[in-house]
Amino acid sequence: MDEGAPHTDRVELRDGRVVLVAPLHVDDRERFVSGIGRASPESLYKRFMTPVKRLSEVQLRYLLDVDHRDHEALLAVDEDSGLAVGIARFVRDRERPNVAEGAILVVDDWQGVGLGKALGRLLADRARALGIERFDAWLLSDNRAMLAVLESLGPLREVGRDGATVRVEVELPERGIGEHMTGILRAVATGDFKLAPKPGDDGGG
After folding, report:
1. Which of 1, 22, 88, 201 has the most CB atoms less than 10 A away?
2. Which runs of E-coded beta strand occur in the chain?
3. Tell me: the pLDDT tens digits for 173-204?
4. Please, are residues 24 and 64 in contact by the beta-carbon 8 Å criterion?
5. 147 phi-psi bin (left φ>0, alpha ψ -120 to 50, beta other)
């Protein structure tokens, strides 16, 4: 299969709703902007770690200008309404090509049903296919939702801290997970997928 070919995954979430997840395309601008606009100030703050009222044109160009190799973004769309409800993204580290910074945003009324973890696993699978072995992320230390997403991929390692932000790294699952992605995502979404307990794991997220 051509690793650069567009591919859509259909994911059923814990509450029965279904999303279609595919690589972001330049023609998705309006849908992407609309989805971002429905996220709460708190969700935007946790994603960008700064107050965001409206993305600037420069920011939008950057977020939409993906090459699907060093900068990838996967857009989740509600199968029924066609509205964007989540976005997962990685940007490869230029100095460490096997490492990428990962980030996920889920619109508020779609949080808590497994979408974040589903997007995380699809993003990890895509990254592995492109030679990326590890995600590196700066995030707010109280962003339990994103920490839980990263923890669902593997054990987290804290590598830095600056005030209210923490930098973590996680090794990505080996390639081949995509062959069983549908079943894994369904298990994650329904809560049947169980991770081995880790010291201090409170089960949050």
Report:
1. 88
2. 9-12, 18-23, 71-78, 84-92, 99-106, 134-140, 156-162, 165-171
3. 886 544 444 444 444 444 543 433 333 443 33
4. yes
5. alpha
